[in-house]
Amino acid sequence: MPIKNLKVERLETKKEETDLQKLVSDVISEVRKDGDKAVKKYTKQFDKVDLKSLVMEKDQIEDLINKVPDDVKELIDTNISRIRKFAEFQLSMYKDMELRVDNGGTVLGQKVIPIESVGVYVPAGRFPLLSSALMGTVPAKVAGVKRIIAATPPGVGKPDPAVIYGIAKSGATQILNIGGIQAIAAMAYGTESVEKVDKVIGPGNKFVNHAKKSAFGSVGIDLLAGPSEVLIIADETADPVKVMYDLLAQAEHDVAARSSLITTSRKLAEEVIERIDQFIDSLATKEILKTSWEEKGSIFLCDTIDEAIEVANSYAPEHLELHLSEESERKAFQNLRNYGSLFLNQNTPVVFSDKLIGTNHTLPTNQAAKYTGGLSVGAYLKILTYQKVIDKKAMENLAKRAYKQSVTEGLAGHAKSAFLRMS
After folding, report:
1. Residue 238 pLDDT class (50, 70, 90 cuts)
2. Selected catalytic residue, list 252, 318, 321, 329
3. Which residues contact 345 (CB under 8 A, 6 or more apart)?
4. Higher pLDDT, 125 or 145
5. To 5 degrees, how large is the angle CA 134–CA 87–CA 169?
6. Active site residue 318
7. Where is 386: in which H helix or E strand?
8. Pick the catalytic residue: 229, 252, 253, 319?
9. What pLDDT sits at residue 254?
10. What is the pTM of this model?
11. Which domains does the chain have, with CATH numbers?
C-alpha cells in the first residue's frame, strides 16, 4: 500500500444512492400504510425471520436474560454505571435559568425539559453491538425520558441475550424485535403495536441512516453515524504494533470503515505498510479487514506536527487517537478542533470508548465533526425559553420599539398587537 493522501470518498455512487432512497421510501410508505403487517413482511424479506409479534413480551425477555452468564451481567452492570456517571456529569451543565433585563422589568428564562419519548436503535449486523444498547438507552434514562423504546434486529429467530439484558437494565420501557428500515419507520410513524416516538436515536448501516434521514421532520434524529472511522496521529515515539492494531480494531467494523494514519515518521509509515498484512492475517475478522484496509485505509506523511494537526482538522474524523511525545500531545490537544472524540496518548485506544470507558460512542462521521459533537444526554433534552414583562415602563418601551419595527416591515397585525400595549 503506498503512502497516500487522506480523503473522504462518497459512500455510494449516484445510482446506488438513488436506488437506496427508493427502497427506503417504499418500505416507509408501506409501513405507514399497513403498520405491523408491513414490518413483518420486510422482516421476513430482509432478516429471514417470520415474526409473530413486533414487541417482545416480558417472558421472552426474561427467558433471554436468564441465558446471560453472571460474569457478563456483571460486566454490563459496570458499563452501565460508568456511562450513567458521565451522563449525569453532562446533565449537571443543563440548568433552568432566569435573567432580568429592562431594569428588572422583564424576565427572560429557560427551562430544561426531557423529550417525552425516544426510539433507540441498537444495530446487530455482523456482530451484536451490546455497547450501542447502553450508549443509546442510559443517557435517555438519565435525562428523564418517560418512554424509551429500543429496537434491535431479530437475528436467527431472536436477538442476542446479552444485548437484551443491556437494553432492559439500561431502562428501556419496551423492546422491539425488529431492525433496519422497517424498525425506524415503525418508531417514527407508529403502527398498531408500536406507539410513535418523538425522536430516533442510534447508529446503523446505510439503510438505517437513510431511513432516519427520510423520517426527519416527522421525528427528530440525533445524527447519521457510520461507517466507523479512526484517524491516528503518530510520531517517532509511537509503538508500531499498537498503531496497527488500533487501526484494525476500527477497520473490522465494516468493509466500508475508514482507518487512517497521519505520521511525521517515515520509518513508522513504512513499517505499517510492510507489516500490517501479517496482522490482518492473524485475526479472525481478516476477510473484512482485507477489504476495509485495501479500499479505505490510508497513510499520510507530514513534515511537522503542525501540518499533521492541520490535516486532521480538515479530515474531521469520528475517532482521533494521539500516539505522540508529551510536547506534541499538548500542542495537538490545544489546536485540534474537529473530531467526534479524542483519545489522548497510546494508553487510551478507541476500543475503551467503544465498550466501557463512559463517554458515548455514537459519534459524527463523514466530516460531520466539523459542525456537531457526538451523542450526549443533551440529545434527550429540550431547552425551552419563556418571557414575562412585569413592569409597565418596560412594557411601553418594548411596545414602542416593536410597533416601529413592525411598521418598518409592513406587518400591520404585528404593529396593532404592539400598539395595544402603548400608552
Report:
1. very high
2. 318
3. 322, 323, 324, 329
4. 145
5. 30
6. yes
7. strand 381-389
8. 319
9. 87
10. 0.91
11. 16-221 (3.40.50.1980), 229-370 (3.40.50.1980), 391-423 (no CATH)
